């Protein structure tokens, strides 16, 4: 897309010269580092030949000085493992300590048998920013996730958070790829809304004390932060057939466990002209399969970092990507399985038709009974929201949850009621103010279509493929009851 | 990536049969419609041969019934122009009206010389959802943008909003592509924050009246919605070298003009190990050039829809993508130009060194003097935020705004102060509570690097390439003082 003559250098930033001088532009990976930015370690390791003189920049992860030689490990976040720096003259290691930012010039050499395939024989090291060894909180040793959470501004340099961050980036890319390949249009649904889709009463409300307009009246009505973009997506599905979003959602959930965040990312999709729940299941399954395959192809070493000592996790990732359809049962069958579960399996809550599935039930189904992803469909209407399409049995609705080992509930969706009168009846039956949803119900007046959609918690997806227990370690800046550090 | 055997059909939804039956899988565009979803009109027009039997679904845009023939136009949001349906038996048009949702079976035919290259000779039309012609608000005629704003749930079906929506989708894709090709990592910065980066006092604050935890105390402190993800991005730039976000930002801006939204999308980026402002300018310029080129390549007809009767806009899009560097002047030079502007140019505010540039000044520079994009760099320190890096002159800071015809200020950025002591002095001088920024300033203790970044308003970018005057027409669900419809 960029003609190569566009790679003009308008300036010669300090850190570029050495690298550029040592190779021709045509030998570069043309997908990378077209601008006057320094290439990342990943780029250098993947594209530069050994023997090349390179200049790298990054942060020191560890230093080891011996009598006649010194070693350091440098990272810049582009690879799971940093690159080893060999200093044949230990004097050039003077002043180096963990956490320093450095620029290093040297010769790229192969490093067979080590974690990283290449290393650098350093000629010069320039310390850009010091890090006091007495106070720098991140040492080579293994830190607990709790400790890392307390140093939120430094933890991105830790191996675990660094791998999570790259996986988030690649997983999002994989999701966009999946949706665009299947002709979905991305819609930017709002964060501020007058609608509380789930009706759970856990929405954050807005205040604007500093504004010139009276506090409660900036928008002329009460507004809250979105708990789901579904209803807004349905508006656009009525014009674009297939739409999706990738947005933040918010819940003022007072729970202090590691399962909930007050602010999290969701991918939601809506498809018009869809009559069968099975088609939605196919879209969902293929979304997860292709996104996970994208991670295997583009972030394999980060995935392996989490699964190498975790056999069930490795098996799960394999299961998510293989061709075998995910298991699928109805809610009624699920209740039956749970009621007949191994007598040793003692549930705190008795599984009973008409009641929601508890976490312990979901965990049993996904992690034990099916030992893999399982769709549970057709829940009782009474425990589901107003917009779901009733099944002909008059008791259940055409909906699904996808349960997986790890986060349990990964995804939920349904066909939506597309008939105006039936929708209005359902709204009333759920005790919701009909007028507040005029904008939504009136879609059924003008070219309504059978349709459906779903939402997947992005952090839960990442939690699933990393096996991390606490969702606070999945998002860059976790927000939860009592915690909003910065 | 998907082996073709994965295209198993787990179900046969109503709308697929006819199309699938009429072609082999190998003749499909393998990038599209892998699942059991109906292909879009765009897909059919681009990949199906004339003479093929097709089944399409969409919404009627217009109907014309004559004695022996009837015509209808159908759209599904995938193309700027719908497809023409020819009914040789006018009886099958019975009941059709603008706004209906339909399924149509027929034979694809070429349609030379018309707006759309293909049309459909209909065999059968099935009306899925009616639209009362008496009340359906969107007719074939041209509606004003003000009127469309009042029918926010139907306007996505209008040609203008439909084109804007596709351009948003493609522009976002182009941005992700640019950043990933240049080894930036996407960071999901928070919406809820205890920090007010710009210090403008226009942040929305949160309340949680329904929560079990006392109202002001859900997070144990006052929090607000983010006005910029910059400071959070800097945290990650200190570990990943180059990072970006694509997030919502929020301003409780009481202005009632068409230039501001209370909720809007921004793309922001931070680069570590960058000493020269010129390098940031290069990244910014190339981001805009490559994203606009991506639109030209992937949404050309939507761009043309806006520029075909707007010669200056066509020229601007051309200018944004050509190889000639964007104009670049210092703030001091800008003041000089403004003070010597054509005497006929009467400014309401006198341009004076030390004062911010007014909109009228920016408009003069971009739309009149340079007639294209122009970077203005090195503004006086006093009118800029605490984090910007001072220039050696002691009076200005190393920053830039990019001004363009249309929205004027498109983008702003700077090098950031990377020295701990100087940053702390600046924070005090700006009257900000030092302790509240400990998490940010302490980044300078541990391997600080010269760095910088910028932010671009996404709606302003779309406004620029569409020439639309009111920013409320750029975002799916506009929020502004007094307005939050749903």
UniProtKB/TrEMBL annotation, chains A, B:
It is an enzyme of class 6 (ligase). It comes from the Eukaryota. Its EC number is 6.1.1.22. InterPro entries: Aa-tRNA-synt_II (IPR004364), aa-tRNA-synth_II (IPR006195), aa-tRNA-synth_II/BPL/LPL (IPR045864), Asn-tRNA-ligase (IPR004522), Asp/Asn-tRNA-synth_IIb (IPR002312), NA-bd_OB-fold (IPR012340), NA-bd_OB_tRNA (IPR004365). Pfam families: tRNA-synt_2 (PF00152), tRNA_anti-codon (PF01336). One of its GO terms (biological process) is asparaginyl-tRNA aminoacylation. GO terms for molecular function: asparagine-tRNA ligase activity; ATP binding; nucleic acid binding. The keyword Protein biosynthesis applies. Keywords: Aminoacyl-tRNA synthetase, ATP-binding, Ligase, Nucleotide-binding, Protein biosynthesis. Residues 166-476 form the Aminoacyl-transfer RNA synthetases class-II family profile domain. One of its GO terms (cellular component) is mitochondrion. Belongs to the class-II aminoacyl-tRNA synthetase family. This is Asparagine--tRNA ligase, mitochondrial. The lineage of its organism: Eukaryota, Fungi, Fungi incertae sedis, Zoopagomycota, Kickxellomycotina. The gene is SLM5.
